[in-house]
Amino acid sequence: METTKSTSRNSGSNSSRSEARRTNGSSSNENQSNRAGLSSQLGKLFEDELKDIYWAEKALTKAIPKMVKKASSAELIEALESHLKETEKHVSRIEEVFAILDKEPKAKKCEAMAGLIKEAEEIMSDSEKGPMRDAGIIAAAQKVEHYEIASYGTMCTFAKTLGWSEVKSILGSTLEEEKNADSGLTEIAEACINIEAAVEEG
Ligand code: FE
Ligand code: ZN
Ligand code: FE
């Protein structure tokens, strides 16, 4: 719904601008105001993304401990616990970015993350404690990491375009940690869990 609203708002201002260009030709003043307009639209989109991931990271600080409780593999428990600590850092980094932008930190419910967490809970309650459940937890956790990688990747690109180098570097550190969390989970899955789960099945 918000997308529709902002799209119609955008197309409104764009069409009046291109109207001006058609009648007067494009002076450098118009180009500048056009760029400023696009910057503020991109800034708004960035802020929406930030509110979304703020909600998501906070939700994860509550969801990851539940995954830890349901996991069996020592490696998996360790990976989840260490990513929980990182996730708490991710929350504070987002608050730092809000402060740099001179905005109050505000969260907006991320329906995607809410759905991924709900699926993780379903997987955990549908399986017995052991390697199969661990494999399910890894699958669910990797979907979470991929969502975060997409979000932080986008926000870094937006920040770069907007010339917000400090913001880009803060969120870039989080992006790296999300990527490492994802590849760590892949290693755990390959090293033990999936094999044990297959053996248990067969
Ligand atoms: Fe995170
Ligand atoms: Zn979302
Ligand atoms: Fe993460």
Structural features, described:
It contains 6 helices and no strands. It has 202 residues and is an all-alpha fold. It has one domain: Ferritin, core subunit, four-helix bundle (Ferritin), CATH 1.20.1260.10. The longest helix is centred in the N-terminal third of the chain and has 43 residues. The protein is elongated, with a radius of gyration of 21 Å. 29% of the residues are buried. The structure holds fe (iii) ion (FE) (2 copies) and zinc ion (ZN). The site of one fe (iii) ion has 6 residues, from helix 3 and helix 6.
In short:
This protein is mostly helical and about 200 residues long. The protein has helices at about 1-25, 30-70, 75-100, 110-125, 130-160, 165-200. It has a single domain, classed as Ferritin.
Name some characteristics of this structure.
single chain, 202 residues, mainly alpha, Ferritin, 6 helices, elongated, binds fe (iii) ion, binds zinc ion
Topology (SSEs and partners):
Layout: H1 2-24, H2 28-70, H3 74-100, H4 111-125, H5 131-162, H6 165-201
Percentage of β-strand residues: under 5%
Task: Please state the structural category.
Answer: mainly alpha
CATH class: Mainly Alpha
In total, how many beta strands?
Answer: 0
Q: How confident is the prediction overall: mean pLDDT?
A: 87
Largest sheet: none
In the CATH hierarchy, the architecture is Up-down Bundle
Name the hetero compounds present.
fe (iii) ion, zinc ion
What does the radius of gyration come to?
Answer: 21 Å
Q: Work out the helix count.
A: 6
- CATH fold descriptor: Ferritin
Number of domains: 1
**Topology as a string of helices (H) and strands (E):** HHHHHH
Tell me which oligomeric state these chains represent: single chain
The percent of residues in helical segments reads: over 70%
Low-pLDDT segments: 1-25
The termini sit apart by 48 Å
CATH superfamily, by name, is Ferritin, core subunit, four-helix bundle
Shape: elongated
